[in-house]
User: What shape does this take?
Amino acid sequence: MKILMEAISYDKFKWQICGDLNVIALLLGLKQGFTKHCCIICEWDSRARSLHYSRIYWPARKSLELGIMNVENQPLVEPSIIFLPSMHLKVGLMKHFVQAMNQEEAAFTYL
Assistant: This one.
């Protein structure tokens, strides 16, 4: 990814970035795959299953220091210039909404 960023002269143009969550995590230097703190915005713990739908507030990610909260490499871009992919977020929210619906009701059969 670093070679690609150099090839397109990212340092010169400083474009804003919107992409897949995995690509954004890669640009921010986060570990790939099933990691404990995989969120690019907060310190969400993916392995704390009991807290996923009950805990409302997760603390914001304060820094991208190597070795802390699954940061594996130096970030290639600043987090402030990244736009979150709205389509992926909407699809994910709808998936959880449908999973939470009662499957015996008419609204579920309508979908």
